[in-house]
DNA sequence: ATTGACTCTGTACCTTGGTACAGGGTTTAT
DNA sequence: ATAAACCCTGTACCAAGGTACAGAGTCAAT
């Protein structure tokens, strides 16, 4: 199994080389084995892990949260099982709420586009009207 | 129509009082009218606007993006129509992608809970297995 | 008319999540 | 054997999004 240098990992996962080392320092990715001269040599897995981090970040999770998420992803038991289950249950709720809100934002944006296309007066736009009334936005 | 002081707005929208002024400086909320002695007096609307900002932030949007989103929300024409439609179209794509990813994370977390409950060896957990194979996580 | 709880502006400081050297060693290709 | 292109650690710096004063004015109640 061929191993990767830090710059290869950085390139493959499309992040800055310093970011890879930063994630190691923050305890998000585990410290890889080193060559005799101290160079980090990563398994391909590290690239997946970093991409996982980036996706989670884009969804609004903090690095501390992602530490827990990664632990689930990699099926590790760095944190006690109790804590992990508790964490998972809470995050599922939050995710459902986020999906709900994202759908609201999507409707809002769609209404903006259709408003522009049809050039209707805004108080006659049915989507906007419905959203305003429901108090969901 | 009763108007609110800055601290009342802050309290009602559950943010720091300095944050309200910060959003004004950043151009996210419009500068409210002042009393004779210079005190800001807000319409109730300001609370909605701030809550909108907070929801958008929680979904991973930056304050610059939220400036545009708010403009759609409030049906203002601060930005040219062309730019807004373009913006809306791009954001709709991003939102769909985010929803997709959130569903993936949700499945991951659900699998973690069921794994713990059933205490199955992980390679026998059908949800985890499916997710790993699809390459979606 | 004075005390306490507000408000104002302006500037300084903080946290998160990086990013960029400096100063030094290593590896590879010529 | 020497330059180019890596890597190391450590520390400094940066941008975004706030948060916290300081110094001064205002308002409401006693």
TrEMBL record, chains A, B:
Protein keywords: DNA-binding, Repressor, Transcription, Transcription regulation
Aminoacyl-tRNA synthetase found in the keyword field: no
Domain HTH merR-type: 3-72
Gene Ontology molecular function terms on file: DNA binding; DNA-binding transcription factor activity
Keyword tRNA-binding: no
SUPFAM superfamilies associated with the record: Putative DNA-binding domain
Signal peptide from the UniProt entry: none
SMART domains: HTH_MERR (SM00422)
Designated name of the protein: MerR family transcriptional regulator
Biological source species: Paenibacillus sedimenti
């Amino acid at each position: 199994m061929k191993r990767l240098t830090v710059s290869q990992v950085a390139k493959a996962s499309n992040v800055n080389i310093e970011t890879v080392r930063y994630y190691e320092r923050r305890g998000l990715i585990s410290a890889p084995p080193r060559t005799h001269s101290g160079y980090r040599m990563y398994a391909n897995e590290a690239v997946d892990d970093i991409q996982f981090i980036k996706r989670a970040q884009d969804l609004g999770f903090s690095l501390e949260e992602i530490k827990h998420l990664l632990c689930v992803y990699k099926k590790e038991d760095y944190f006690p099982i109790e804590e992990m289950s508790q964490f998972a249950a809470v995050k599922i709720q939050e995710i459902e709420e986020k999906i709900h809100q994202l759908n609201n934002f999507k409707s809002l944006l769609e209404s903006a586009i259709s408003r522009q296309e049809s050039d209707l007066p805004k108080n006659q736009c049915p989507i906007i009207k419905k959203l305003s009334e429901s108090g969901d936005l």
